[in-house]
Amino acid sequence: MSSYPYSLLPPDSDNIRLLRLLPNEDEAAPLHCELCNYSLQKPGPRTHLYEALSYVWGNQCETLPIYVDKKRFLVTVNLHAALSRLRDRSFERIIWVDAVCINQENKQEKEQQIQFMAEIYAQANRVVVWLGEAADNSDQALEVIRVSGGMEPTSSSNNKMIQQAIIALLDRPWFRRIWVLQEVAAARNILIHSYEACPELHSLIPSVTYLIKGAIFRPKYATIPGQASLNIRSLGELIDMYHTREATERHDKVYALLGMSSDDPTVASLSPNYTVPWEQLFERLIKFLLCEEIFVETQYDKEMAVIKSKGCILGQVSSVKSDDTENVNIIFTSKNTAWHSGSKIEWTLQASAKSIREGDIVCLLQGASKPTIIRQCKDHFAVVAIAATPLKESGSFGLSELPKSIAHFPRDFLLVWDWEKPLGESQEEGYEALAKSVQTAEFGDHSHKATRTWNVALILGDLEEYEMAEGRLREAIEGCEMAIEEEHPHKLKSKYSLTPLSWAAGNGYEARVKLLLEKDSIDPDLRDSQFGQTPLSKVGVDLKDKTSRTPLSWATGNGHEAVVKLLLETGKVEVDSKDNQGRTPLSWATGKGHEAVVKLLLETSKVEVDSKDKTGRTPLSWAARNGHEAVVKLLLETSKVEVDSKDD
């Protein structure tokens, strides 16, 4: 912004520059200032006698001159207005102002100075907030807020014009700026300026209130090598709370929160470095918050990431009560934990940038130490809170028990974390565009979408949302049929625990099963990771599940004649296979009275018609016991049954 000839700050030290704002009785006189070096070392029990300015730069294309060491220096119109208002008629004022005190053209200096910002604001005698010039009754609005903070509201607070003025005031850019958070969090004494009005405020909007209200009781910041931190919250919590705030550079959405974080940013290479591309910084952040092995895809021009990970469902949000925190009631549905399905717990969470809603899903991604709260968006899930951390929790178990109680992560999660748009339909277009850059040539468009939809259905099934799951399953089947006409339908395989093939067969969809079986690339003997079932499990080719039932056994028991025929035609099934009860496919078909299926089995000439199960019952005794006269007749016609056979 300016070509001012800065002198270099001493290296490897905590030296900063301060701006000496010279007095002038003439309010219209040009602003004259001087820069001086200052050391933050050995602060002692007292704060330093300088003020730190918290403001919004404003439009960088609209500038006005000030004079620094008698040299012309261009600043934004908003900063010019702030300095004009702060200039005293008789006494010089010592201020730290980022736009002037940091050489903005020197990236190395900028990266170093950013790491001192928490310390700069914490040690300042006072933090001065500049909201901008008075407009739209902002002075009255500030006064009403100040009075309301200390006593019963006055009648003016009910005045519609004043209410509108307060809304307009709180909509000013300062309240949306991400660096503001650290500035007010570090402050021990805060002064708000807006033209003539300068009330001291302790209550504005929830996210700033949380940081301002304890300013005078702020504990001493902690220091790690090269960085001062206020140790307010973990980085994951801060990101969840504030990632929708505005910043001139995307990097600052991360760097502005480091000074408040209780985490060491050097562990994940998150220390300020503006030469690191945004997409790489975003990826590092996500892996730091979740797990280093997780798959993350980002782009240089978007604040959106696609995350792929194994995980498990913990439960679902049943109710939410919000104020400056969110009280979230969760019903656990997980069968993978030591907790019982249906157990309830209440978490009190700090209010997040994206509000948690009833119906949101709580999951744990493999390798993560904290749960993630997500929301269904058609064929993927949107991240609501990346690292949910309760301030308080009530129930029979706690968050600390989570990681050690879960050993199995059966589901594949596809998550989208979008910092730019609110949750909802607006994410769909952005996701589709980013997904195209993620998917590889081995996925056709339809098979890719069908796989995503299928996996969503399985997750909904874990939540016992069966009606919604069925709808997604049908969409996946339709997508699978389209994929068959394209390429590589074998990619829709059982790493997602079940496949379109298994569901189509299980529900007797003959045409769909036939289409899938006709593809040479389909492996009907793939087992899933959770229950040991094959793609044709529950009906449909011959590997046994945990009860030793084969797909043919399930198909015959369910009476799916066409599917049984398709399976027999593969030539890969053992027609007389016995399960744990000693029952064969013929036994199941006769017991259920499925006449057409019994005919198909008898026509193979591969069945032992009089085979006994573990209770001594034969297919004939099952059919006779259940009153299936037509099936009894078919069995007698074989002349291979012992009519007087007795069971146990």
Structure, described:
With 648 residues, the chain is of the alpha+beta class. It folds into five domains: 203 residues, no CATH class; 73 residues, no CATH class; 128 residues, no CATH class; 136 residues, Alpha Horseshoe (Serine Threonine Protein Phosphatase 5, Tetratricopeptide repeat); 73 residues, Ankyrin repeat-containing domain (Serine Threonine Protein Phosphatase 5, Tetratricopeptide repeat, Alpha Horseshoe). Helix content is 33%, strand content 19%. It contains 23 helices and 19 strands. Strand 9 and strand 10 form a beta hairpin. The longest helix is centred in the C-terminal third of the chain and has 19 residues. About 10% of the residues have low confidence. InterPro entries: Ankyrin_rpt (IPR002110), Ankyrin_rpt-contain_sf (IPR036770), HET (IPR010730), HetReg/Transcr_Mod (IPR052895). It holds the Pfam family Ank_2.
Reconstruct the topology from this structure.
Layout: E1 15-21, E2 32-39, E3 48-54, E4 63-68, E5 71-76, H1 77-86, E6 93-96, H2 98-101, H3 107-114, H4 117-123, E7 124-130, H5 138-150, H6 160-170, H7 179-186, E8 190-193, H8 206-212, E9 222-224, E10 227-229, H9 235-242, H10 252-258, H11 278-289, E11 295-298, E12 304-322, E13 325-332, E14 344-350, E15 361-365, E16 372-377, E17 380-385, E18 392-394, H12 402-405, E19 411-418, H13 426-438, H14 445-462, H15 466-484, H16 500-506, H17 510-517, H18 551-558, H19 561-569, H20 585-592, H21 595-603, H22 619-625, H23 629-637
Parallel strand pairs: 2-4, 3-6, 3-7, 7-8, 17-19
Antiparallel strand pairs: 1-2, 1-6, 4-5, 9-10, 11-12, 12-13, 12-15, 12-19, 13-14, 14-18, 15-16, 16-17
Helix pairs in contact: 4-7, 5-6, 7-8, 9-10, 14-15, 15-16, 16-17, 18-20, 20-21, 20-22, 22-23
Keywords: ANK repeat
Protein name: Related to heterokaryon incompatibility protein
InterPro entries: Ankyrin_rpt, Ankyrin_rpt-contain_sf, HET, HetReg/Transcr_Mod
